[in-house]
Specification:
Elements: E1 4-6, H1 15-30, E2 38-41, H2 43-52, H3 57-74, E3 87-93, E4 103-107, H4 113-121, H5 124-142, H6 147-161, H7 171-189, H8 197-211, H9 215-224, E5 232-238, E6 249-256, E7 263-271, H10 276-279, E8 286-287, H11 288-294, H12 296-313, E9 317-324, E10 327-335, H13 340-352, H14 358-363, H15 367-373, E11 377-378, E12 385-389, E13 391-394, E14 397-403, H16 406-414, E15 419-423, H17 431-436, E16 439-442, H18 450-458, E17 461-464, E18 469-472, E19 477-480, E20 486-487, E21 492-496, E22 501-504, E23 509-510, H19 513-520, H20 522-527, H21 532-551, E24 555-559, H22 563-571, E25 577-581, H23 591-599, H24 603-627, E26 632-636, H25 649-662, H26 667-679, H27 691-696, H28 700-717, E27 723-728, H29 734-755, E28 763-767, H30 770-774, H31 776-779, E29 785-789, H32 790-798, H33 802-805, H34 810-815, H35 832-846, E30 851-855, H36 862-870, E31 875-878, H37 883-894
Helix pairs in contact: 4-5, 5-7, 6-7, 11-12, 13-21, 15-37, 21-37, 23-24, 24-28, 25-26, 28-29, 36-37
The chain binds adenosine-5'-diphosphate and magnesium ion (2 copies).
The site of one magnesium ion (MG) has 6 residues, from helix 32.
Length: about 900
C-alpha cells in the first residue's frame, strides 16, 4: 500500500488517511500558500505498526523516496554537514487532540551538522540552541526520559552563568549544555544520542505511532468519544526557524475570535521563539496588532493567507505560523475550535457575509453547544471581591475550592466538592485534573495556551495568564500581587471565563441570556442582555432556532407530569406532551388509597377505594388539559410494578414480628404483609407492570379513563379544547391491547353518552418490548398511534436493567469499545434502533401514515434525534429542559 503522501498530493478530505494536520497541510500546499515542503505517513502505517509491533518494510522505502524528492527540491540533504536540511516529525490524527501527541523539531542535527547550520545561518548560538532543543525533545518524547533532567541542567546552566532567560545563554554555555544533555541521554536511556539523521527520523516516527496509546491520549479520546482504533498520521515537515533573532518569531492566529465569536482577527505572536514556546505559555505574547507594527510585510501576508483560508474553508480557521527572517511560513491550519457562543455567532456572521447558507449555518452548531449556553453565568450585582482580571479563555462561571494538582482536584471532586484547578501553566499531564475540576485558572499563557485550548474543547470554564498570581504548587499557596492574604486549598475562588475576572469567595450566579431568551422570548432577553456580545448571541440563537423550526420535520413534545412542567415545556417551544406519566397521581399522600384498592377483597370495598381516587385523578387531568389547551397530550396509563405502592417487604416483616412479640400487632398490618409477600417480585422491572397490571387489577383502566373523560368534559363545557391521547404501556401482544382498548372505549362511550360530547380520543400503545416491535404490523390494527419507549426498549432488547448495569459494567464496556457510548444515553442504532425501525415499518404497513412518537431520554439526545428523523418518526418527546435542544437537532437532521 501507499504509506507516504507528499504534501502536494493530498487534500483536505483525506483526514482518515492523512490525519487532520496532514490533510490541511496538503490543502494549503494546493492553494499555493507558503508551506515548508514535506510529506505525510498515513494512519494505515500507524495501524499496521500498532497491530504488528513493527514498522512495515515498504514504509522505509517510501520514506526514502519522498525524502529525496524534498531534498532535491530544496537542494539540501537531511542532516548533511554543510547546509543541512532539518525536519520536524509531527503527529496528527483525524480528530485534533491538542497536546496529546508528541512533536519533535530539528531532526537532522548532530555533532557535525550543527556546525553546518551555524555556518549557513551565521548564528552559532542559534544552531547550538536548536541542537540542545532537539536532544531535549527527542530525549523526552522518543526515549521517555523524564524532562526534569533536562530542565534541571538548563536551570543550573543559567544560574552558573548568572542569566535569567534561555536565550541569554551564549554559544559556549550551549555547547557545554549539549554535552551535558548527551550525558543525560547516555545515563537515562543507556544509548548514545543517535547521530544518524535518518535514524533520528525513523525513531521519532515510531515514537509518534506509540504515543497513540499513551494514557493521556486514551483519556482524551474517551472524553471526546473518539474511537481508539483510528491511529495517527505522521507529518515530516521541513524546518523553518522562528528563533533566528529579532526578525523571526512564531505565532498562532484565528480568523475570528474563538472565545466570543466577535468578527475580526485574533492571535498571539512571540518574537525569536520556536514551536511550542507560544503554546506552552512560557513567555507572554504579543498581539497581531503588535506584529503589524513590528513587521508590516509579514503581517500583510498573514492577513492575506487568513482571508484566503477562511474563504476556502468557509469557516473560522486557526493557523500556526512562523516568520523566519521576515519570511512567512504556514505550519498548520484547521477549522478552529470555538466556544458554544462563538459557534452561533460565527455561523450567522458567515450567513450575513454570504459565505454559507442558513441551512449550512444550522450544521455549524450543535445541541450540545446550545445546552452549554443554557447554563448560568455570574450575576453582576452584589458584593464581589475582585482578586485580578486576566485572559478570558473559555466561558462560563465556576466557583470552587482551590486545588493545586491532579491528585487534589480528583480526590476533592470525587468527595463531591467543586474545585478550581489553579496552576502556573498547564501541560498535557494536567488533563485528569482539568476533567475533574469545575474550572481552570493559570498564571501564565495566552488564549492559545494549552489550558485554554483544552478547556474550550471540553466546554470548561477557564481563565489564563493571571500574572498577578504567584502559584507555589509545592507549598500549595497562591500569593496575589498587592494583597496580604496567602490563599490555600481552604479558600474558595470564583472565575469568570467570559470576562477573565477572578474573585475571592463565592459569587452569585445569574441566568444565562440564552436561557432568558428561551423562556421569555427575544424582546425580553434583548432588553436584559447587557452587553453587545450577549445581544448578538441571543440574536444568532434566535435566528438559528427559527430556521430549525422552519425546516424540521420532527415535531417536539415534552415529557411532563404536572402543569408546571407542561408550562415550562410550552415556553421552550414544545408542541404537545408526549408522555404524561400518571404514577405520581397514586403516590405520596395518595399511596394509602391505592393500598386500599390493592387490599380490597370485595367488590364493595374495591368500588369504595376507586371512588376516592376518581375525583383526585380527574382534577389532575383537568389541570393538565387547561395548560395544554389545544395541544395533544399523551396520557400513559399506570405503568410501575405494584410494589412501588406498597411498604418495603423487609421493613414490614420486621415491624410485624416485633409488634407480635410485644403483643401489639395490628391485624391490618398482618394482612398487608400477606399481600406484600404475595406480590413480591425478584425482578419487578420484568414483572407485573404496565398492561399486565392494568389487565389484572379490576377497575384500574376504568378509573383512569373515566378520570380523563370527565376531565375532558369539564374542559369542553368551559369552552376548552382538550386533546388527550390514551396510551397503554408495556404491551407485548395485540390481545393485551385489544382488551385494554375495549374497556377504555366502553368508558369513553359511556361518559360521552352521559355528557353529549364525542369523546373518541386516540388510543395507542407504547412499543417497548421486542415482541411488540416484531409483531407491530399486527399490533397496529388496534392502535391509533405508537410511542417508542426507548428506555425500556433498550433494557428489554439488551436484556439488562439500567439501574443494575450503569454502575457495574457500562464503564468497562465503553473502555473495551463494546459500547461506543452508553446505550441509555444515545440510541444503539444497530440493535434498539433496528427494533424502532421494525416497529415503524410494521405499523405503517398496516396503517399508512400512522403517528409514531418517541418518549424516553433518547428523545432529547442529539445523535438519537438524527436517527429518529431518518426512520420516519413524527415526533420526539423529551424533558422540558431539553426541548430547545431537540428543536435545534431536529432542524439539523432535516438539512
Ligand atoms: P500540535 O499538534 O501540538 O499543534 P505541531 O505538530 O503543530 O503540534 O507542532 C507544534 C509546534 O511546533 C507548531 O506550532 C510549530 O510552531 C512548531 N513546528 C512544527 N513543525 C515545524 C517546522 N517544520 N518548522 C518550524 N516549526 C515547526
Ligand atoms: Mg500545531
Ligand atoms: Mg417504559
Amino acid at each position: 500500500p501507499k504509506y507516504v503522501y507528499r504534501f502536494s498530493e493530498g487534500d483536505k478530505d483525506q483526514k482518515d488517511l492523512l490525519g487532520g494536520k496532514g490533510a490541511n497541510l496538503a490543502e494549503m500546499t494546493r492553494l499555493g500558500l507558503p508551506v515548508p515542503p514535506g510529506f505525510t505517513i498515513t494512519t494505515d502505517a500507524c495501524r499496521a505498526y500498532l497491530a504488528d509491533g513493527a514498522v512495515p518494510d515498504e514504509l522505509a522505502v517510501q520514506v526514502t523516496t519522498a525524502l529525496r524528492e524534498v531534498e532535491e527540491e530544496l537542494g539540501r540533504e537531511l542532516g548533511a554537514p554543510e547546509d543541512p536540511l532539518l525536519v520536524s516529525v509531527r503527529s496528527g490524527a483525524k480528530f485534533s487532540m491538542p497536546g496529546m501527541m508528541e512533536t519533535v523539531l530539528n531532526i537532522g542535527l548532530n555533532d557535525s551538522s550543527v556546525e553546518g547550520l551555524a555556518e549557513v545561518s551565521g548564528d552559532a548560538r542559534f544552531a547550538w540552541d536548536s541542537y540542545r532543543r532537539l536532544i531535549q525533545m527527542f530525549g523526552k518524547t522518543v526515549l521517555d526520559i523524564d524532562g526534569g533532567h533536562f530542565s534541571g541542567a538548563l536551570d543550573a546552566k543559567k544560574a552558573s552563568r548568572g542569566v535569567a532567560l534561555d536565550y541569554e545563554l551564549d554559544v559556549d554555555a550551549l555547547t557545554e549544555l549539549v554535552e551535558e544533555y548527551k550525558a543525560i541521554v547516555r545515563e537515562q536511556a543507556g544509548i548514545d544520542f543517535p547521530q544518524d539523521p535518518r535514524g533520528q527520523l525513523d525513531m521519532a516516527t515510531e515514537a509518534v505511532f506509540r504515543s497513540w496509546n499513551t494514557e493521556r491520549a486514551h483519556i482524551y479520546r474517551r472524553r471526546e468519544k473518539i474511537p481508539h482504533d483510528l491511529g495517527t498520521a505522521v507529518n515530516v515537515c521541513t524546518m523553518v526557524f522562528g528563533n533566528m533573532g529579532q526578525t523571526s518569531g512564531t505565532g498562532v492566529c484565528f480568523t475570528r475570535d474563538p472565545s466570543t465569536g466577535r468578527s475580526g482577527v485574533y492571535g498571539d505572536y512571540l518574537v525569536n521563539a520556536q514551536g511550542e514556546d507560544v503554546v506552552a505559555g512560557i513567555r507572554n505574547t504579543l498581539s497581531l496588532a503588535d506584529l503589524e507594527s513590528l513587521d508590516p510585510e509579514s503581517y500583510k501576508d498573514l492577513r492575506a493567507a487568513m482571508r484566503k483560508l477562511e474563504t476556502h474553508y468557509r469557516d473560522l480557521c486557526d493557523i500556526e505560523f512562523t516568520i523566519e527572517r521576515g519570511k512567512l511560513w504556514l505550519l498548520q491550519t484547521r477549522v478552529g475550535k470555538r466556544t458554544a457562543a462563538a459557534a452561533f455567532r460565527v455561523a450567522t456572521q458567515l450567513v450575513d457575509e454570504r459565505l454559507i447558507t442558513t441551512d449550512e449555518a444550522l450544521t455549524r452548531v450543535t445541541g450540545d453547544q446550545l445546552t452549554q449556553l443554557m447554563f448560568p453565568q455570574f450575576s453582576t450585582t452584589g458584593e464581589r471581591d475582585l482578586l485580578t482580571k486576566a485572559m478570558p479563555a473559555s466561558p462560563g462561571a465556576a466557583v470552587g475550592f482551590i486545588a493545586f494538582d491532579n491528585a487534589e482536584a480528583i480526590a476533592r471532586a470525587e468527595a463531591g466538592e467543586s474545585v478550581i484547578l489553579v496552576r502556573r501553566e498547564t501541560n498535557p499531564d494536567d488533563l485528569p485534573g482539568m476533567v475533574a475540576a469545575s474550572g481552570v485558572l493559570t498564571a501564565r499563557g495566552g488564549k492559545t495556551s494549552h489550558a485554554a485550548v483544552v478547556a474550550r474543547g471540553m466546554g470548561k470554564t477557564c481563565v489564563c495568564g493571571a500574572e498577578a498570581l504567584e502559584v507555589d504548587a509545592a507549598a500549595k499557596t497562591v500569593r496575589v500581587a498587592g494583597r496580604d492574604e496567602l490563599l490555600t486549598s481552604e479558600d474558595i475562588i470564583a472565575i469568570d471565563g467570559t470576562t477573565g475576572e477572578v474573585f475571592l469567595g463565592s459569587v452569585e450566579v445569574a441566568d444565562s441570556p440564552v436561557m432568558t431568551y428561551l423562556r421569555r422570548g427575544l424582546e425580553t432577553a434583548l432588553d436584559s442582555a447587557g452587553d453587545i456580545d450577549n445581544r448578538e448571541l441571543i440574536t444568532s440563537v434566535d435566528r438559528l432556532m427559527r430556521h430549525a423550526d422552519k425546516v424540521r420535520r420532527l415535531a417536539v413534545r415534552a415529557n411532563a407530569d404536572t402543569p408546571d412542567d407542561a408550562r415550562h415545556a410550552i415556553h421552550r417551544g414544545a408542541e404537545g406532551v408526549g408522555l404524561c406519566r400518571t404514577e405520581h397521581m397514586f403516590l405520596g399522600e395518595r399511596k394509602k388509597f391505592v393500598q386500599n384498592l390493592i387490599l380490597a377483597s370485595t367488590d364493595a370495598e374495591r368500588e369504595a377505594a376507586l371512588a376516592v381516587l376518581l375525583p383526585l385523578q380527574k382534577d389532575d387531568f383537568a389541570q393538565m388539559m387547561t395548560t395544554m389547551n389545544g395541544k395533544p397530550m399523551t396520557v400513559r396509563l399506570i405503568d410501575p410494578p405494584l410494589h412501588e405502592f406498597l411498604p418495603d417487604l423487609t421493613e414490614l416483616s420486621v415491624k410485624v414480628a416485633v409488634d407480635r412479640e410485644k403483643g401489639v400487632l395490628d391485624p391490618a398490618d398482618e394482612s398487608l404483609l400477606a399481600v406484600v409477600r404475595k406480590s413480591h417480585e425478584a425482578n419487578p422491572m420484568l414483572g407485573l407492570r404496565g398492561a399486565r397490571l392494568l389487565l389484572t387489577m379490576p377497575g384500574l383502566i376504568e378509573l383512569q379513563v373515566r378520570a380523563i373523560a370527565e376531565a375532558a368534559v369539564e374542559r369542553l363545557r368551559a369552552g376548552g379544547d382538550p386533546r388527550p391521547e390514551i396510551m397503554i404501556p408495556l404491551i407485548g401482544s395485540i390481545r393485551e391491547l385489544q382488551i385494554a382498548r375495549e374497556r377504555a372505549e366502553a368508558v369513553l362511550a359511556e361518559v360521552g353518552a352521559e355528557s353529549g360530547y364525542d369523546l373518541s380520543f386516540p388510543i395507542g400503545c407504547m412499543i417497548e418490548l421486542p415482541r411488540a416491535a416484531v409483531t407491530s404490523s399486527h399490533v397496529a390494527e388496534e392502535a391509533d398511534f405508537f410511542s417508542f419507549g426507548t428506555n425500556d426498549l433498550t433494557q428489554t432488547t439488551w436484556g439488562f436493567s439500567r439501574d443494575d448495569v450503569e454502575t457495574s459494567f457500562v464503564g468497562h464496556y465503553i473502555d473495551e469499545a463494546i459500547f461506543g457510548t452508553s446505550p441509555f444515553e444515545s440510541i444503539d442504532v444497530d440493535g434498539v434502533g433496528a427494533m424502532v425501525r421494525l416497529g415503524v415499518e410494521g405499523g405503517r404497513s398496516t396503517k399508512p401514515g400512522m403517528k409514531m412518537g418517541v418518549c424516553g431520554e433518547h428523545g432529547g439526545d442529539p445523535d438519537s434525534i438524527a436517527f429518529f428523523h431518518s426512520v420516519g418518526i413524527d415526533y420526539v418527546s423529551c424533558s422540558p429542559f431539553r426541548v430547545p435542544v431537540a428543536r435545534l437537532e431536529a432542524g439539523r437532521a432535516a438539512v
